[in-house]
Amino acid sequence: MAATRRPGRNHLFVPGPTNIPDRVQRAMIVPSEDHRSVDFPTLTKPLFEETKAVFGSTEGTIFLFPASGTGIWESALTNTLHRGDTVLTSRFGQFSHLWIDMAQRLGLNVIVQEEEWGTGANPQRIEEALRADTNHEIKAVMTVHNETATGVTSDIGAVRKAIDAAGHPALLFVDGVSSIGSLPFYADEWKVDCAIAGSQKGLMLPAGLGVICVSQKALKAAESSSGPNDRLAHVYFDWADHQKQNGAGYFPYTPALPLLYGLREALACLREEGLENVYHRHAVLAEATRQAVAAWGLKTCAKEAKWNSDTVTAILVPEGIDAAAIIKHAFVRYNLALGAGLSQVAGKVFRIGHVGDLNELSLLGAIAGAEMAMLDNGVKVQPGSGVAAASSYLRENPLAKS
Amino acid sequence: MAATRRPGRNHLFVPGPTNIPDRVQRAMIVPSEDHRSVDFPTLTKPLFEETKAVFGSTEGTIFLFPASGTGIWESALTNTLHRGDTVLTSRFGQFSHLWIDMAQRLGLNVIVQEEEWGTGANPQRIEEALRADTNHEIKAVMTVHNETATGVTSDIGAVRKAIDAAGHPALLFVDGVSSIGSLPFYADEWKVDCAIAGSQKGLMLPAGLGVICVSQKALKAAESSSGPNDRLAHVYFDWADHQKQNGAGYFPYTPALPLLYGLREALACLREEGLENVYHRHAVLAEATRQAVAAWGLKTCAKEAKWNSDTVTAILVPEGIDAAAIIKHAFVRYNLALGAGLSQVAGKVFRIGHVGDLNELSLLGAIAGAEMAMLDNGVKVQPGSGVAAASSYLRENPLAKS
Amino acid sequence: MAATRRPGRNHLFVPGPTNIPDRVQRAMIVPSEDHRSVDFPTLTKPLFEETKAVFGSTEGTIFLFPASGTGIWESALTNTLHRGDTVLTSRFGQFSHLWIDMAQRLGLNVIVQEEEWGTGANPQRIEEALRADTNHEIKAVMTVHNETATGVTSDIGAVRKAIDAAGHPALLFVDGVSSIGSLPFYADEWKVDCAIAGSQKGLMLPAGLGVICVSQKALKAAESSSGPNDRLAHVYFDWADHQKQNGAGYFPYTPALPLLYGLREALACLREEGLENVYHRHAVLAEATRQAVAAWGLKTCAKEAKWNSDTVTAILVPEGIDAAAIIKHAFVRYNLALGAGLSQVAGKVFRIGHVGDLNELSLLGAIAGAEMAMLDNGVKVQPGSGVAAASSYLRENPLAKS
Amino acid sequence: MAATRRPGRNHLFVPGPTNIPDRVQRAMIVPSEDHRSVDFPTLTKPLFEETKAVFGSTEGTIFLFPASGTGIWESALTNTLHRGDTVLTSRFGQFSHLWIDMAQRLGLNVIVQEEEWGTGANPQRIEEALRADTNHEIKAVMTVHNETATGVTSDIGAVRKAIDAAGHPALLFVDGVSSIGSLPFYADEWKVDCAIAGSQKGLMLPAGLGVICVSQKALKAAESSSGPNDRLAHVYFDWADHQKQNGAGYFPYTPALPLLYGLREALACLREEGLENVYHRHAVLAEATRQAVAAWGLKTCAKEAKWNSDTVTAILVPEGIDAAAIIKHAFVRYNLALGAGLSQVAGKVFRIGHVGDLNELSLLGAIAGAEMAMLDNGVKVQPGSGVAAASSYLRENPLAKS
């Protein structure tokens, strides 16, 4: 985009959008076609089935929308809830905040449990709140699985246990935009009612395809929410319209065709690598990143190891240093895109995304670049220390589990 | 998609999605990038300006959503109107019907003027209805510019005159999904408050980018609709969130990147050909198609010449012939995708789209194919007659005006 | 390429380069890679086997050169022959002429049998010449299978019979550049010693990959020609260098990588359609073209039906008409690329290529375009007559045999 | 290519083929077109002019062949020389060896000056040999500018001075396959008569386009070599055939179309970065690599700093270590393609190519990977030391000169 050509590739280490594998890129180069043709379902019908795997589901129903993940947040809320309904949720970062903001603006009554940034959803507090809700006013629990702003992963299994322990019928909505396809996710086992994914993270596609995996319980809630007066107005994201068409392989309106072809190929990539290997790889690359951070003598935004996200690491810069300056310098000088600190942690952290289609040497290049950008901006780290620590770890820990 | 390879290209003559020019296809093959980078606005900022040209606007504001045109319908309604507001509209085909259905499901009070399929919006009736609405209960007039189901184009200039003649303050919303970028469209001159376009028609892109051109008056209405209680709940399609970010070249959530690059190239294509030439070309190809229909001895769905759409021609098959069988046969036997008849005209018409990036010989191939498919299905047309008539017209009428 | 954008696609009906199927186009979009890597042979080794099918061979050896077909002509001659060797050949068009010119310039003694343009190789004369060559001075018979300049196909099976009938040991070299992959070709059955193909015709790739299928007999001749003094100097096109590397899946120098990936996909296309269906399709499209020519009241350059080429038809324009003007007009006005008349037939013919990845409606578009260009240039043909005749034939004759 | 998917990109650090910039990759995705059309010269004619810049020439003539660099070696020799002519050259690596082998097999009398591997052409010895050749038997001096096998660059300016000092009329042929477009090259200033380039190195394209820049003196020699009897037989690589067509923008046979479009874009890339910046960037990345080698305590194959190549560094592994094992391990375990040792240095060196479209972090990733592969194979280097040294150098030395 720059006026003068910058040589070589851009090193993309934001926590999404992620790198698109060549074969997925190729798969999306398709001519236009009639999405009502007799051939079209041979593309689409398998997608509705095969996409479930990345959600850890066999029982769910997949809906595919031409939309970003934000739209799918809205789809979950508007299909299942009524105006004025109460939902329970935790705020511990920018994305959990934005989802709360949406819920409020849609007219829901949102009970917010504030958690310290750098931690995640607190199952115990959730259980307490649900136990206290003896009238079952709370219709849904909303949880962000992986808070990209702080590099924190919440324990959805524990949230489920909390709901069950409270014996509460609330639906469970999980934002898995930056986790699904990268971190272990078990929608069926965790009884997630709406699991929300975007295309531009673990699915290794451009943004523009919103994916949701919906439980039978949520589908039922959607039916009962269809009364005209108090429902949350929506048509574009309506599940029922899609259900009518999806069974035969069609959509109620024109789908984003290249992304459907891309999804098919991305799912094949994940299948060929093996989802367990994919999860393991993310864990290994994340730990290598954290080894580098430790070698630099810096701290992550995540308060404890249990909160560590395996898709993104938020790194606290020393007092007196402007993380934003490091990020800008990394981009302009070294063609390295790091994630910025947002809101509460703006200027205090930079983030290294290690999500999607990535391997050791790409990550080591980014670690080297982050180190150089820090050094250039006055952070006293030992040159080469980050790569030394990360590479030693990576030598010992292959990316593939099997 | 078929199990066995079918040689040669698919001849795509549905009225959208349309053929993607090679250079636009190429432009969309981009690596992922950080949509918050310092470079990103060099891509996006010109788009907000340059896109206005295809709407015939210099004063409007462009919003770009990762969505289909259906979503943009919703964006127009939910940003400007309140629950229970009254809107006036006309129904004369499947797409005008679907928009009405959406408005009703969103909780609006919709006054529907039924017009015969094959005709379009009736300015006189609109004027009458507005004159009768002395309390100005009607907040907006919704009109589909080009009804693809029947191949009919309504006269938006006349609708505007009707509103003005009635001295009514209603907003004017126009669905230009299958007209904008192909048919003359003058949002400023016609004072269209929301002009709605999709990417997959005249913009020659895949579906997935919804575009709306909003007037100052509509922006103002959006502000006043932002009260919490009676507004039509929406966040994803909210203009205000976009306005906050668009000025600096950013978006409130991850945009559909390839489509933005594609849009830049598609606009360049339209500019290089010249919009007046683009409109003229569509008129010439459409008239050539109608010449073929006449030579076949058949009639179009459009009742009078004044209703003729220059982006799609709906052709009535003789009594006793199943148009659906012709369409299926054309696809399976000749790799030709024709548009189906929908709803009221299902089985009675097939449609030839002549919209987007197209020239004479492609159209003549499709006309030949439609003729063959008709002959194979018992329609008695003179072999070669359609191409003879269309090609004679095309020899006399160059595609470029200048 | 033009300064102002021309809408729609270019209709490519030269007899090569031919249209590249989308999936082949996609397959060629590959990053650079190390052509000495341990993975590389998984791409290349199957190519050496699978390419034989289009030559009708199981016993031959395939060599793949980064070169045009012209280079492969040179490869055949320089690997097997010595300076001053005598070869026998026929001239009946521009391409047979150019191959003769090459042989002469390489220092061979070329016995040329002149045949009327519009006919092809004469097996009887060949037999006579070989019988007369009792000393076996003639080392090779060179024949152009499909002379694209005139739209004539020679009968290679008959040439083989002529050689056998004469009991002559000469090698048989066949230029199959515009036939292999499109017309029936049986290298083993016909005992073709060097069968020469380019990538840009029946293989549906861009130019740049030269392919040769070499018999055991020719390989043996190549060994004996390797003496230093009188051999035809060559290194780039040397088979022995390739043989040393190809077995393990490598090349003596850097190969044209995208074309190798493209070849793999193109072979898959041909396999999926079925070679017999591919040949049948070319025959049907060719006959449809000839039906159009007859309906126009024009004649082909091929003197008799037995000479008709099924990959290209050369059409004689009436006296007083300049074929070159028609061709230029077709290109400029209708975006239709027709083949020009060359040498003896320059200005007298235009050529419609019907080779490669093509189906009915594309051809009918071209026939319509040729007709319009003729009419615009004063050729009195009946409007629509070509398409009427061709489409009637095509309705009766499906492209797929099975 | 592997049966199981390997995540992330392949890190390509062989000294060619090199990484293809995204925009060049895009530019090559073109439909087939008629290479005899009236539009075609608008693509080709500028190429013949603009390509000269990378050769440092305004006076030369460019020829473009569908071929690898090996073919262009042959083109230089066969167009200008006669059978039995004497040429003078130096051997100091695998590629200088192969060119000598070709010259001998073509029937030339080759005087070889053996130089130690790790050094290059010796201008003093060349001058002596030329002075001794009082009869001017030597028709040409052949020099490999950049010997990729050993990472050695010869001083072509000094070779020119040697020839001039000897007052000898020999032609000067320079293999610039791995230097042109990456290292300073001044064909006019150095009076190089044949400067030979391939597409897959500094030109950042796939292999398959051979480029030669020919002086007026060499063109004259080519004319005089065209006598029929003693010339080196050649047609495919004949300059005169090309000269006849190139002037009007055409070729004597079908060109490799995608590569021509790619060349246009690659030249634009080089122009936008600025050739001086391109050369500077290669120097900086090369020196960073050598800093890493020094930090590892290892030696390069180049004997003295003056021989250092700025496009490839050949690194000697310690006694008892098999460099081939390191290379294989780097590829299989870390998806890193390093260059192998060839011939005399097989098993003794591995090579890091730093040529083409490359920036700091990509190189640092490769240095990290090479280090890991060495450590895994028993080479005792300090973890992180290579990246520490290289990154410190890179922080001080920006890639762009201006």
Briefly, what CATH class of the largest domain in chain A? Alpha Beta
Low-confidence stretches of chain A: none
Number of helices of chain A: 14
Order of helices and strands of chain A: EHHHEHEHEHEEEHEEEHHHHEEHEEHH
Shape of chain A: globular
CATH topology description of the largest domain in chain A: Aspartate Aminotransferase, domain 2
The gyration radius over C-alpha positions of chain A equals: 21 Å
Chain oligomer state: homotetramer
Cα end-to-end separation of chain A: 41 Å
Largest interface: A-B, 68 and 68 residues
The overall pLDDT of chain A, averaged over residues, is 96
Describe the protein's architecture and organization.
Four copies of one chain form a homotetramer. With 402 residues, chain A is an alpha/beta fold. Chain A has two domains: 22-271, Aspartate Aminotransferase, domain 2; 274-396, Aspartate Aminotransferase, domain 1 (Alpha-Beta Complex), CATH 3.90.1150. Helices cover 41% and strands 16% of the residues of chain A. Chain A has 14 helices and 14 strands. Chain A has helices at 22-27, 40-50, 52-55, 69-80, 94-105, 123-132, 156-166, 216-224, 239-246, 257-273, 275-296, 323-334, 360-376, 385-396, and strands at 11-13, 61-66, 86-91, 109-114, 138-144, 146-147, 152-153, 171-175, 194-198, 209-214, 299-300, 312-316, 336-340, 349-353. In chain A, strands 2-10-9-8-5-3-4 form a seven-stranded mixed beta sheet, with helices on both faces. In chain A, helix 10 crosses helix 11 and helix 11 (275-296) runs antiparallel to helix 14. The first copy, chain A, starts with 10 loop residues before the first strand and ends in a 6-residue tail after the last helix. The model of chain A has no long low-confidence stretch (mean pLDDT 96). Chains A and B meet through helix 2, helix 4, helix 5, helix 10 and helix 12 of A and helix 2, helix 3, helix 4, helix 9 and helix 11 of B.
